[in-house]
Design goal:
seven-stranded mixed β-sheet, 231 residues
Length: 231
């Protein structure tokens, strides 16, 4: 069986290796993992939408179409709790030139609304050519710090794998900023690990035939119920 190419849309080798390690046990038999560094042709990125989930969906579908690969795009987001009806999870890190500018805007908004209760979400969209897309997400709840600590200035990530919002987000159960968690503590709430494991178990069904089998079994059950209701 010829393995399909599975594009993980990142140029960060550390992030790529982490995601492959999570997905390999379920999908490694059917796909070869590649990153954007392996794509030799020019990639044209779609214009970003106003919310994160629309962005990952648009990018995943567009990159899959351009490359012919299965394509996975992920996004980490911060959102205010509670979400008002129709409010989208807001994008921040891609909008500003520096983290300091980004965090300053977020914390000013929290102060203005007198609401420091926030959630941090992780979303993934996987597009399979000619088979559509699947979306997966999870989140953790917590609060924002009242003030960004400048000692983190210029630091992009820590040894425990925390990126971006970890510098201002305090996880609810541990009452610790993500940047102060040990590797073991962070592993318990690692959204990427949780979401990608779930995605891998779901997507593998499209390769080994179990997804089709489940769909056929579901169809048989529905038809059986319909026959009984008309008897």
């Amino acid at each position: 069986m010829t393995k399909k190419k599975f594009l993980i849309a990142t140029k960060d080798n550390e992030k790529f290796e982490k995601y492959v390690k999570i997905l390999e046990p379920t999908l490694g038999k059917y796909v070869n993992f590649i990153s954007l560094n392996d794509i030799k042709t020019e990639i044209k990125y779609p214009k970003l939408a106003s919310n994160a989930m629309s962005d990952v969906l648009k990018q995943s579908m567009d990159l899959s179409k351009q490359t012919g690969c299965i394509c996975m795009v992920d996004e980490m987001n911060l959102f205010e709790i509670p979400l008002t009806p129709g409010e989208y999870i807001e994008r921040y890190l891609a909008t500003f030139k520096t983290k300091e500018e980004c965090f300053d805007i977020i914390l000013k908004k929290a102060k203005k609304n007198n609401n420091y209760r926030y959630g941090m979400g992780f979303e993934v969209v996987i597009t399979i050519p000619n088979s559509g897309f699947s979306m997966y997400q999870d989140n953790v709840i917590g609060t924002l710090v009242k003030k960004y600590d400048s000692k983190y200035s210029g630091v992009e990530k820590l040894e425990n794998g925390v990126y971006g919002f970890g510098f201002i987000f305090v996880e609810e159960k541990s009452n610790k900023p993500l940047t102060e968690m040990t590797t073991a503590e962070y592993a318990k709430i690692d959204l990427a690990n949780k979401v990608l494991k779930r995605a891998g178990k779901d997507i593998v069904g499209k390769f080994d035939g179990t997804a089709q089998k489940k769909m056929e079994e579901k169809t048989v059950k529905i038809k059986s119920k319909l026959r009984k209701s008309t008897d």
